[in-house]
Fold this protein.
Amino acid sequence: MSDDKPTIPPEGSGKGIKHFDPELFQRKELSGTLPGDRLVRISRHRSFKGGGPGILVPRQKAVEPKSNIGRFFRRAKRVLIGEPIPTDQEIHERLTKVKALAVLSSDALSSVAYGTEAIMRTLILAGVAALSLTLPISLGITLLLVIVATSYQQTIRAYPSGGGSYIVARENLGTIAGLTAGAALLIDYVLTVAVSIAAGVDALKSAFPGLRPFDLEISIVAVLLIALFNLRGIRESGTVFSAPTYIFVFSVIGIIIAGIVRLLTGGLAYTPGPAGPLAGTHPLTLFLLLSAFAKGCTAMTGTEAISNGVPAFKPPESKNARITLAWMAFLLGIMFMGISFLVTQIHLVPDPSEHETVLSQLTHLIAGNSWFYYLVQFSTMLILFLAANTSYADFPRLLSILARDRFAPRWFGLRGDRLAFSVGIAALTALSLLLLVIFGSSVDRLLPLYAIGVFTSFTLSQAGMVIHWMKSGEPNRLRSAVVNGIGAVVTAVVTIVIGYTKFAEGAWMVVILVPVFIIVFLLINRHYMVVARQLRDKPQVKPSESPTVAIVPVFSLNLVARQALSFARGICKRVIAIHVATDPAAVDRLRADWEEVEDDIQLIIINSPYRILLPPFIAYIEAIKEMEPQDNLLVILPEFVPKHWWEHILHNQTARRLKEALLYIPGVVVTSFPYHLEE
Amino acid sequence: MSDDKPTIPPEGSGKGIKHFDPELFQRKELSGTLPGDRLVRISRHRSFKGGGPGILVPRQKAVEPKSNIGRFFRRAKRVLIGEPIPTDQEIHERLTKVKALAVLSSDALSSVAYGTEAIMRTLILAGVAALSLTLPISLGITLLLVIVATSYQQTIRAYPSGGGSYIVARENLGTIAGLTAGAALLIDYVLTVAVSIAAGVDALKSAFPGLRPFDLEISIVAVLLIALFNLRGIRESGTVFSAPTYIFVFSVIGIIIAGIVRLLTGGLAYTPGPAGPLAGTHPLTLFLLLSAFAKGCTAMTGTEAISNGVPAFKPPESKNARITLAWMAFLLGIMFMGISFLVTQIHLVPDPSEHETVLSQLTHLIAGNSWFYYLVQFSTMLILFLAANTSYADFPRLLSILARDRFAPRWFGLRGDRLAFSVGIAALTALSLLLLVIFGSSVDRLLPLYAIGVFTSFTLSQAGMVIHWMKSGEPNRLRSAVVNGIGAVVTAVVTIVIGYTKFAEGAWMVVILVPVFIIVFLLINRHYMVVARQLRDKPQVKPSESPTVAIVPVFSLNLVARQALSFARGICKRVIAIHVATDPAAVDRLRADWEEVEDDIQLIIINSPYRILLPPFIAYIEAIKEMEPQDNLLVILPEFVPKHWWEHILHNQTARRLKEALLYIPGVVVTSFPYHLEE
């Protein structure tokens, strides 16, 4: 996306190893069991350069794939995601307030593209007249936004190093609360990608109806492109991402102002489309009103991003973040209210065919088919795609924090070639593509699942903040606790409203998934803790454990078997050869050969009348282990290594399967003795 | 299918090991490096019983799976395919002529169910009048049958141990000719299954039109059932399979006789169906006539089965086989001619909707809707399924012969639990199901691919016989050579006719596939030969090769790493520990720990600024191997073994991937040092 490629230190500059202290190993060179010259000579090998005593630095060429196919994949990877970045080149780009608003708020700001529409599409079920309620409901949501933003101002103050809901809830309310917030957020991040991409494609389709049949395909390509940008690492994000956000904000505000001016001068009138006004199919119940409110609350997803990203701000971080959050809430509020105000004033009816978004209808009405209309639609699409991109920052980061705390598999914490959390990016891509395919890239079908997770995490985070203030020694702690307490209560009520009204439509999936996630997190944590304890607590190791008996399975006395046997003889005093007999002729041949060459090694024949190879051998090993538990057994497996991968299918995979099976018998060490075919 | 289950020898009877000669190992007990009492004690372990000195016989319980899931699969397997049969229980059931005719001829005899129809459906393209040519074409095919049968009489005489086309062609014409015959036959065996099953389901659909929509499903179930019977081993085949074959033969002959009687008494008249006589769409060209002839030749597939199966006959095998072949040809000839005669006499027109077979139409006309009609249809279906079963005997056997001669992967020669060639059966099932699905279980669409393979192998086999006689010293060799020569020329002409007329319709696939198969056979053979030569030709092995340097990759100095290091110390005098450094903090921790505990082992840090683990380690091993080629390297990989399979995904698969990669570096032996988690 930009030209400032990471600079890889030139070979031999030694820059990459500056974090090692060579002094520590100075002594070793003299006392090691290995002659010092060997080490020195290795560092003179063309694959390495010395990095001080005991330290080797591989040259780039030495670690590159050697096979043609390996080189091809490497080159393809380089083209797609760029040259790898060394660990010590990690740069934490600090964001100005202007850039931060663009980068961290795209999720929240973009919600105005579908927020008003979501309310209207619910209200219209009670007839066109009910649409007039759009404005009061929007007002309620804006009020909610002010409360939540004020609450988060306090979180930023208390957690200047980044206060995600998982961290705040876990620290103040305990592990289960933290994991609940974490699980809810992970689910909502996936939904954010799916909803934002689907809505972005809707904006595109409104402007170019010819693209309608390809919505799913466009959505998939968009997700893949965003994933690719993120795998490349998004250090250039601030600059590049600012443009669409500000274009969107200014053009939407422009439309609103122009709309209000024309409304006041009487020049704005809406004529319902050919479908005519729809008659209501539902009575205007409280449930319907709450549903419309719940749908509109989706506009508030993404509010948390700024409090997550405090350390990315330029100093004073905390203050800048709070100012940015206020601006974000202000812009979101006026855009949301402005659109809702205009559509209610002109009695706009959402396109029943769902071919055109409400924002597109409104823009058409105000700006006609001008270039400005296309600018609004295009920047809407871009900011929605950027909203998906916000999840691409948050989802892998949250998973890496969970991995660090041992609640998620370790590899979610590993950084890829470009220092991005590649596994998390891949997981988010797979899950959001799955959602898009299942729900056919339809915003309306995805929305019921959305927002409940965000509001659950809002509630837990605010409740955690209340505890935080109560325990703190700050002078204003009571006032702060009250502010967060109001936030917690309000968001809790909204969470219940969302859960209640959307339950049957899909929120039940989230309600089921969250506890499932929590159980999985806890199981994973338990496993890692058990491992760590076992690795720590065990009694001291014996100074030297050498195997006492070597066991070599032989099929026939060919060259591989002979080399394996002589290798065994070199390591252990006692060697046993085992032949699992499935073919009498092979036994006779083997015994005849044996007499000639290997008369110092005991050959044991295990008869296998049913022609199975593994179980009799395993049974023998288990029997020996049981009868002579003090013996260290070393099983030496002669193994063929063909030159080409396809040749593997021409050999029975016995050695491989045996290796797998033996791994599970405690006290048995397995050695693969490879034999390399030369042609 | 029958009650005569194989009798498994009772435990401890020692019957299963009678083919071993314990005497050979008497001496060993005194001279072995292992104390004799250990061996004796092992044979007293509950898992084993002694089978003589140096021989162990595992008890059934010891080789059974121990995990619940393993036991479940084992039990399911037992229910499906029965208890395993010991190798020495293999019984070659000898067949009487009556049984042999049923078992070995079902493929050939069943062809009358679709042979005449195939001719008619081609001729009708030139209009209903052209159908009168059905009889002369059938006569030509019957003549061809007589020639081929006579030729094969001679093959049986010359190859009393079974003269399949592959064997005859390979022995007399060379490897390529043999492989051509083998490839052509393999393809046709797959087609036999697909065509016979599809035709059998057609017979069923003719009788029960309600089953029409489910033809593909019924076909798939039929193939799977036949595969299952064959995996069980089909020793009971003779008795069980005789019934449908003879019911089919007698009922078809009965229909023919009844038809001729009613024709002579004037009581048989056919009124064309509501569709009315079709007008011709093609002119009656020579090409069309040849096409009809080629389609009819499919009736001759399966003629080879008897000459393949000579050793299965009761003595005198050769004579009995020849008599059976003559009977087979006679029955096939009169049934085929009888049906063709009747349909031409009454001017029967094949059902244009293809809902009813010609044989069903004829039987309806003669027997009405009586029980006899259903008997004919049902026995037609059964004999067609039996025809598929013939391929299930031939295909795996031919592949096992090819595997024995090292032209096919070795595992095609392995016998399963019930002594059947399981892999071949599985391959045939997969391929024929694929064909049925691709061609929608339609006989008419499958037929163009069929028969060209059979006639190719006929030609090669007969040509081979000509050479065989010329080289032999028999008195009548010239006459025999002339008989086979006529067979070779005639079948060669027919092969060309079939290839020419069916080429565009699908035979081209076979024409492409046969050379592809031959190339694959030759590549496989080359590989096995190279392996065998390398295992034989190598210079003598050194008496004892012990590793000189042990290399242990360590991530941190936890218990597993310490045990692995002490194991390494026990085996090798020189031990090097390698740490691939991706995280500076981990390096500092490791070094601090190292100072305390492992100060006799050299620790080498390889810096990996791009966070990759494997390539730097591999590069180090390769560099050492290059600089010190005389060293035997032993890489010891500390490896975690979780207690549950799902725990694997929680650990980086580094050890596993490293093991794979190291396997490909010559001169490096890899030892997995497992650490078993206890919880």
About this structure: Chain B touches chain A through 127 residues (CB under 8 Å). DSSP finds 23 helices and seven strands in chain B. Confidence is low (pLDDT under 50) at residues 1-35 of chain B. The beta strands of chain B are 48-50, 55-58, 549-553, 574-581, 602-607, 633-641, 668-676.
